[in-house]
Every structure is written in C-alpha cells, then in structure tokens.
C-alpha cells in the first residue's frame, strides 16, 4: 500500500515505468488532458490536431489529417478494409445470425414462428420471400408490417455495434415499394409484456438502483425465511429446485444471450415510437417506370453502405396502388426479376419480402411470380363456418382458435437444391394482439358431438315402445339426434 | 427392411447419358436438343449438375459413382446460362461436386437484364443475348428457363423466341440442353388453366415446340400422393419429337426413376 498526498501528480504527468498501470479508463480522457501535450501510457505518441499521425498495421498507408481520411495509395489494404467492414456487419449486426442448418447468414422475418417454418431460423441473406393470401383477409399485411418493424428495431437496439457509412448512424435500412407513406407510422411497437410484467419490470428497475435499502435487502435472506421458522427440509428442497432450474435454463439462456436482439415480439395494437425517419426507411412509388424503380433501389443500397437492406413490397399488385398495366406479365415479372437480380448482386446484406393477394392474379401470373421467389408461403384463412366450429370446440381456450392454414410451397436454399419442400395443410396460423403464431395443424375433436353420440344408445333403452322412431334416429344426422331423443323421452 | 437398389442414370441404349457420338469431335456436327422439364417442387439443379458433369468429366459421377471407363472431352467447353440464378449459384454447386472449373463457364444473364434491355426491341435483345454465347459447334450449352423471356420482353411471341433465339442457339453448339418450368400445365381442379388467354397460349406453344424439337425429354415431378420422406419425386425419361429423325446410332431408353435428393446428393431408384 502506498501513500501519496492529494493533488500530487504522478511521474510529473508522463507515462513511464513509474506510471500506475491500469489506472486509465479506456475511452476516457481525464479532465484537463485535452489541451495538454502529455502522452498517455500505451497509447502511442499524441500530437496536436493539426499534425498528421502515423498508424500501425494495415492502417499504416492511411493518413489522418484534420479528422478526415485521405486516400493514399491503398489497393490491397482498401479491399481488406472493405472485407473487414462486411465481416464486421455480419458478426456484429443484431439481426444476423448463422442458419443452424446450412450455415448461411439469415435475418429474422420479425415473426419467430415463421422463422422456424423457414427452417433456417430466418430468411437467408440474398434471398427473397413471397407471402400469398387467398380470400379478402389481410393477414399478409400484418406479416409485412412485422417484417418492417423488425428492421427498425434492429436500427434502435441499444448497445449494438453501429456500423456507420455515409455519415448517418444505424445498421439497417428499409426500402418500401409503396406510395402509402403512412405505412411507416402504422408499424407495430415492441411488446412490453402484460400489465403485471410491466409492474414487475418497474420494481426490478427500482431495486437495481444503487441505494442503501436495496443493498441491505440484497445481502439478506429471502423474506419468506424471515417471516416464520421454516422446516430445514423445505429450505433444502428450495435450494435444489433453484439449482435444477439454473441448469435447465443455462443452455437456452446461452443461445438467447448470443442472439438476444435477433427476434422481437410485436404488439399490433401499439405503434413504434418514434415513427421511423427518412434515414431508416425509404419509399419508392411503384407507379414510376420499372427502370427508374430499379435504379432508385440500387442507388439507395449503394448509399446505405454496410447496412442490412430489407426491401419490402407490401400488398403487391393491390388495385388501389398499382396501375392496371402492372397485371401484364411484361411489367410485374420484369419488376420482380429486376429486384431479384439486385438482391443477388448484394447477397451479403440484402433481402426481399413481398406479400400478395392471390385472388386478383391469373394462374399464369401467380406461377411466374412464385417462380422468381426463393421462399413462398401461402395463407389460406378458414371460412366462417370453420371458424365457428373451432370457436365452439375451444370455448374454454379461445387462445387456441386458429385463423387459417399456412402452406409452404418453397423453402429457401432447400427448394432450389431440388428437395421437395411443399407442405400443404401441415401448419395453421393464428393472429393475436402480441404474436403471429404458427402451430402444427391437427383437426380438433368435437367433444360435444362425440358425447351426444355416446348418449344416444342410452336413449334407445327408454324408447322401447317406439322402435321405428329409434331406428329412424340412427339414420338421421347427429345434429338432429338429441332433439328426437328428447321427444321420445317425453313420450 | 431392405433398401431399394440404387440405379444408374442412363438415357441412351449404349448405357450412356450423352452418347460418345455427341461428345466426339466431328467434321460436320449435328445439332441436338435435350429438354428438362420441372416444377417448383422438384427443381432440376441436381440433374443440370449431372449433365454438366457428364459433359466435363465424361459421366454423371455424382449420381452413378466413379467409373474408370468414362473419359472427359477436353476439346469443348460447356456453357451454362440462367435467367433465374446468378453466376455464383452454379459455381458453388459445381465446386461441391469437384467438377473441373476449366471445363465449363457460367454466363450471367440474370444481373441487370431489365436495366439493360428494358426499352429495346425484342430482336435486338435476342441478338445481344445470342452474342454472349460462344460460337463453338463442338460445345454444349445449358439454358435455364428461356420461357421467362416471353414475360420479360414485351410483345415477344413463342414463334419469335424459337426462330430468333432457340434455333440459332442450337446451331451455335452441338448439344443444347434446355431446362424449362412446367408448373403452368400441372392439373389443378381448383384453378383450371385459362386456355383462351393469349399469354397462356404463347407459353404452351413454346414448351410444345421444345418437346417437338428435342430428342429426349426428362420430366421431373413430385409424387401424386404428396410429400414423402424417402422419395423426392419421379424422373420420367421419354423420347422427344426428333428422336425418330435423329441420325444417332443409339436410341433413347424410355424409363421412369424415383429419386431422393438430400442435402447435396441424389440417388435414383427404379419405380
């Protein structure tokens, strides 16, 4: 232990053998150092801003002067820097992770269940996805909004590495092919939990604050032990349970910790705040000539260097947004073909997501569109009578009522490899306030119907007097059976 | 439980995929067309790879296993061009199969096709496309989804596409292999094909003309019963319209295989 007087300057302000190692905080300059010419230990010689400084390693060919970087002869180093930046984007971006199946980099669609259906835990970079919907419902637009909202949330993840390019911050940029600019303001916000969860999080926030009361509470035993004398056996059981839970959650936690900002849950009744700005989202009107649209997309991608680009086409060919000539093959297919080529050129940081209602498409146009996308999902909402049937069956569990079937027509990477990945009627979807869920589909058993059928033989015993009527009941449909039974009982 | 016996992929009566007559250098080469038809559920990458492998290495080793008797043809180069897949897609797939990269080249006609050709007349677009292909009458050209040109070039008809692109391309090489998508012609009771639509008529006319001009048709389709874990689909080999007029001394062996594609390997079985 050493003693020194307050205010005594160590080593006359110079770094050297006598300097205390580890005293400097990385990234911080002590007060009063900014204007002095003192050299900090382990930081190399410091100079005035006017002087140029020499850098080491692969940066040695670069000269930094007045805060700007002037390009000296950098050929190999430049390419190395570009590659490093790209690798940095892939490694540090919160919305990019490797596919557990193919190892390719994928990004989330914003819907965790849809990511699972795609089997890669997301949409691989350089790939495109089409969500089709039959009928007049608008489930596809929710998926488009969630996809867009997820991109905005990546941009706002706190603590995530921000790879800057062209001066503005952020790691993700959205390109929306639509003239409906309110789309940006209608994006759902992140689900913050139920009222209870919000209260709990507020309490834990308060507890995490540094105060004398919190510190004493942390060190003390749980209140349950203080309140009354508890049998030592129960206490041991508590401890064992905690250990088991900790072990179980370790593996899942490790995975979640690695990609904790990869996927978010969105509340479709809320709105993302603040609304996305022009630096986060770009709109391109689909009513421009195709070559202009493609050029604008290309320019935006080039301008947003080192950012993940998520191109969205919500409600493609919607008659309110697209002119009638878009229904000709030469226009719509040319546009998608052009976008596909752009996505493939920028395959390391670009994805395309489109939704379309199939009722307005001819078979030829639909097949040609599906042909140009790497992944195709078809939503088939249930008709009204099916929904009523499900509501009746799941009377006590309304959360289980599904809204339609989800057919997989194409999966990225696997389908183009030649694998047969068409899965029809294997999945069902349900749209809730806080989640778009996709479950395995199975036809539910109607307990009411089966129980009424089971009761029917019993009714035969009571109606011995009228055998003809009983036999007639058997041939009738199950819906009329209980009514007839009642009549026979009264008789 | 016994596993079905793996079968070799054979197209012609001399037990070959591409007969030696077609691979050997000849003073007056004939021009032939093979047609591969597929659907969205059964895409033809593995079959195209096997055909490229046969052109470059002498046989479809990825399907049939190694064979010492088959020899490569170093005289010609195989050209692959696709309107739906980028250059890297084929390079990566063929690199995995360890196909000699000097034996083939990939033409990128997907990138910027629209930006380059948006306002040009159809004749000029087709001429420029033709110029991209090397004029080597001993070579093989593989073309994926040329029918997309009917959608991408305004006003182009099936006859024009045939006369101004497919037939001149056939004359540029010894063997033209066309892979075409036939999802449009799949039977679907819920969604019948509108045969009065002029676009549908052009597509039908184009694919029909390809079938008539080819000597062999390889049709990939999924099982009628739906998805199965042990079978991906069926490969049906049938004679094309020109098989009887062909000067080749060998004939096409009509056959039907079941096949299973898993990861990067494909196995064939007899039906």
UniProtKB/TrEMBL annotation, chain A:
Q: Which InterPro entries match?
A: Elongator_complex_protein_4, P-loop_NTPase
What's the short name of a Pfam family annotated to this entry? PAXNEB
Pathway assignment reads:
tRNA modification; 5-methoxycarbonylmethyl-2-thiouridine-tRNA biosynthesis
From the UniProt record, give one GO term of the biological process aspect: tRNA wobble uridine modification
Q: Does the entry feature the keyword Cell inner membrane, yes or no?
A: no
Chain intervals with Basic and acidic residues compositional bias: 458-472
Name the domain of life this protein comes from.
Eukaryota
> What are the boundaries of the region Disordered?
1-58, 446-491
Q: Which UniProt keywords apply?
A: Cytoplasm, Nucleus, tRNA processing
**Where does it live in the cell?**
Cytoplasm; Nucleus
Q: What cellular-component terms does GO give this entry?
A: cytoplasm; elongator holoenzyme complex; transcription elongation factor complex
**Which regions are flagged for Polar residues bias?**
34-58, 482-491
Give the protein family: Belongs to the ELP4 family.
Which protein, by its recorded name, is this? Elongator complex protein 4
Q: Which organism is it from?
A: Maudiozyma saulgeensis
- Lineage in the entry? Eukaryota, Fungi, Dikarya, Ascomycota, Saccharomycotina
Automatic annotation (TrEMBL), chain B:
Q: Name one GO biological process term.
A: tRNA wobble uridine modification
Instruction: List the pathway annotation.
Output: tRNA modification; 5-methoxycarbonylmethyl-2-thiouridine-tRNA biosynthesis
Family annotation (InterPro entries):
ELP6 (IPR018627), P-loop_NTPase (IPR027417)
What cellular-component terms does GO give this entry? elongator holoenzyme complex
State the family it belongs to. Answer: Belongs to the ELP6 family.
The molecule here is called: Similar to Saccharomyces cerevisiae YMR312W ELP6 Subunit of Elongator complex, which is required for modification of wobble nucleosides in tRNA
What phylogenetic lineage does the species belong to? Eukaryota, Fungi, Dikarya, Ascomycota, Saccharomycotina
């Amino acid at each position: 232990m050493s003693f020194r007087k307050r205010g005594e300057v160590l080593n006359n302000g110079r770094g050297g053998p006598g300097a205390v190692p580890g005293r400097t905080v990385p990234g911080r300059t002590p007060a009063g150092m900014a204007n002095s010419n003192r050299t900090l230990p382990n930081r190399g010689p410091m100079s005035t801003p006017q002087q140029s400084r020499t850098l080491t390693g692969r940066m040695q060919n670069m000269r930094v002067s007045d805060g700007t970087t002037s390009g000296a002869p950098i050929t190999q180093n430049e390419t190395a820097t570009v590659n490093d930046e790209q690798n940095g984007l892939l490694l540090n971006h919160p919305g990019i992770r490797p596919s557990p199946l193919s190892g390719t980099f994928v990004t989330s669609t914003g819907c965790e269940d849809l990511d699972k259906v795609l089997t890669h835990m997301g949409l691989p970079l350089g790939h495109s996805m089409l969500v089709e919907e039959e009928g007049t419902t608008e489930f596809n637009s929710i998926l488009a909004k969630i996809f867009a909202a997820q991109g905005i949330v990546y941009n706002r993840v706190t603590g995530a590495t921000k790879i800057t390019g062209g001066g503005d911050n952020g790691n993700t940029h959205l390109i929306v092919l639509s003239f409906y600019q309110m789309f940006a303001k209608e994006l759902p916000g992140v689900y913050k939990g139920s009222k209870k969860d919000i209260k709990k999080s507020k309490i834990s926030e308060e507890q995490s604050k540094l105060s004398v009361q919190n510190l004493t509470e942390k060190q003390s035993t749980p209140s349950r032990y203080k309140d009354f004398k508890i049998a030592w056996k129960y206490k041991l059981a508590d401890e064992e349970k905690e250990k088991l839970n900790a072990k179980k959650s370790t593996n899942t936690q490790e995975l979640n910790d690695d990609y904790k900002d990869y996927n978010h849950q969105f509340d479709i009744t809320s709105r993302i705040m603040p609304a996305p700005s022009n630096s986060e989202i770009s709109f391109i009107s689909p009513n421009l000539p195709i070559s202009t649209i493609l050029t604008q997309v290309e320019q935006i991608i080039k301008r947003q260097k080192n950012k993940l680009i998520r191109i969205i086409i919500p409600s493609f060919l919607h008659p309110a947004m697209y002119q009638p000539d878009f229904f000709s093959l030469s226009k719509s297919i040319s546009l998608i073909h052009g976008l596909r080529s752009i996505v493939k050129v920028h395959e390391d940081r670009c994805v395309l997501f489109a939704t379309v209602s199939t009722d307005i498409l001819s078979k030829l146009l639909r097949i040609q569109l599906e042909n140009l996308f790497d992944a195709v999902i078809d939503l088939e909402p249930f008709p009204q009578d099916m929904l009523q049937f499900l509501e009746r069956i799941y009377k006590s569990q309304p959360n289980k009522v599904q809204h339609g079937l989800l057919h997989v027509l194409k999966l990225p990477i696997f389908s183009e490899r030649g694998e047969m990945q068409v899965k029809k009627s294997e999945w069902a979807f349900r749209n809730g306030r806080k989640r778009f869920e996709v479950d395995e589909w199975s036809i539910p058993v109607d307990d009411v119907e089966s129980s009424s059928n089971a009761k029917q033989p019993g009714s035969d015993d009571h109606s011995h007097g009228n055998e003809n009527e009983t036999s007639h009941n058997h041939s009738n449909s199950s819906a009329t059976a209980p009514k007839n039974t009642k009549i026979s009982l009264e008789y | 439980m016994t596993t079905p016996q793996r079968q070799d992929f054979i197209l012609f009566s001399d037990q070959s995929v591409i007969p030696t007559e077609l691979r050997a250098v000849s003073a007056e080469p004939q021009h032939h067309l093979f047609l591969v038809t597929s659907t969205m559920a059964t895409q033809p990458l593995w079959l195209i790879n096997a055909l490229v492998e046969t052109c470059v290495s002498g046989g479809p080793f990825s399907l049939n296993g190694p064979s010492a008797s088959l020899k490569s043809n170093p005289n010609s180069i195989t050209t692959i061009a696709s309107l739906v897949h980028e250059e890297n897609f084929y390079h990566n797939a063929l690199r995995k199969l360890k196909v000699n990269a000097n034996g083939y080249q990939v033409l990128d006609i997907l990138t910027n096709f629209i930006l380059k050709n948006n306002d040009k007349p159809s004749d000029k677009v087709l001429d420029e496309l033709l110029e991209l292909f090397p004029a080597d009458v001993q070579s093989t050209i593989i073309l994926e989804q040329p029918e997309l040109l009917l959608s991408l070039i305004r006003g182009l008809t099936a006859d024009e596409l045939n006369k101004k692109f497919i037939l001149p391309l056939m004359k540029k090489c010894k063997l033209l292999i066309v892979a075409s998508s036939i999802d449009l012609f799949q039977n679907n009771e819920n969604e019948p094909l509108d045969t009065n639509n002029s676009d549908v008529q052009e597509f039908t006319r184009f694919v029909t003309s390809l079938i008539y001009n080819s000597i062999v048709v390889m049709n990939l389709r999924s099982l009628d019963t739906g998805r199965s874990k042990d079978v991906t689909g069926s490969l049906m080999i049938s004679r094309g319209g020109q098989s009887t007029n062909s000067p080749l001394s060998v004939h096409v062996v009509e056959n039907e295989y079941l096949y299973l594609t898993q990861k990067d390997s494909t196995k064939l079985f007899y039906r």
